[in-house]
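[[Per-residue structure]]
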Amino acid sequence: MLPRHPAHFVIVGAGAAGLMTARELARAGKRVTILEARERCGGRIYPLPTQEFGYPPEGGAEFVHGAAPFTRALMREARLSLSPLEGTRWNARRGALSPGESPTPHAGRLHRALRTLKTDLPIAEFLKTHFAGRQYSELRRTITRMVEGYDAADPSRASTFSIRDELMERGNGQQGRIAGGYGALIEYLESECHRYGASIHLDAAVGAIDARRERVAARCHGGTVFEADAAILTVPLPLLPEIALPAAAREKAATSADIGFGNVVKILLRFATKWWADNGRRHLADLSFLFSSATVPTWWTQHPAGYPVLTGWLAGPKADRVARLDTSELVEVGLTSLAEIFDRSLDRLRQDLVTSQAINWGNDPFARGAYSYATTKTREAQSALKKPDGGAVFFSGEALYAGRDMGTVEAALASGRETARTILAARP
């Protein structure tokens, strides 16, 4: 049971949601203790060494999607600017490169079917029900690639209503990057937490939350115990079952199984030159994104910046299939995909490679995946996890955000602020 006037909160996780929750509570005069399992803040925001790639590279979240009001407001506070994406998107298909993405086949019929859908169902079932014919095989492949690649989702679980939002109503919106990277935003939030008196403990992995007599105790694996009036868990969903919780909180946490959580493998390759800018067949000096059917299907550059870096993206069930590969093997898969896409010698690509990095978020012990996505049961699960029931354990994070930007840094920041404000409004 939560005390009538809680003054001290322990927050588990120093990612975007945890830091935002902490900043808001500390600014309101509450005592805040943040426990982070890693040796750094940021969670799935993961800045890589600038000296290796020539700019602040992102091993995790990289783009600001759409309006992102919470992200942009925080950027203004931190005096950070947004660099809009520029350049041309290219598509590799049957050995040929062409500008622009391939149009969705039978788009009119697809939109009509989505518009008239009354009951949500998994997108794979929707496609099987409405577009089972051979003439729709390309449509099924296109939608499946989008669901797996952009949403990092399993089509057998992903909500058709959620996909309908992306395809029809508002799309994905304008994208950009934070000048200096998301790491600069985390540094600002971290400094804000310190400014308002919050304490941050790194290398403090929590294994249990005990609640008794209007107090909670967060027990770390190393044996250290932190007591407070209430606990707020902001860890990625797959980690919730690994934290022992009081019965009521454990029952709420169990509903998180109804929220999808997908994996991502991200591969960064720095070459000696921008060899793709003029590869003998097509002039790709302004390449922004490249889409293909290769093993690593999606690539992007830092255009308009001239860094000779290509970033590969493998998401959803396809990312799970390379779970056993180590970093060097993933880099090799990336190089092989580029050799296939550009019809270029693999040995030459290896010779041109200056440095590389590959991050499989599914193998990260403090993430176990990349980000959440909506299933047909997600909205009910989110309501259950956010329901104020007088208990001393709260949940927050990008997976609990009910807006369309679920799975993003924007969602994490919005959820963190919402959690803090809900607590402050109910408990003066």
Summary: The chain is about 35% helix and 20% strand. The chain has a mean pLDDT of 93. The longest helix spans residues 409-426.
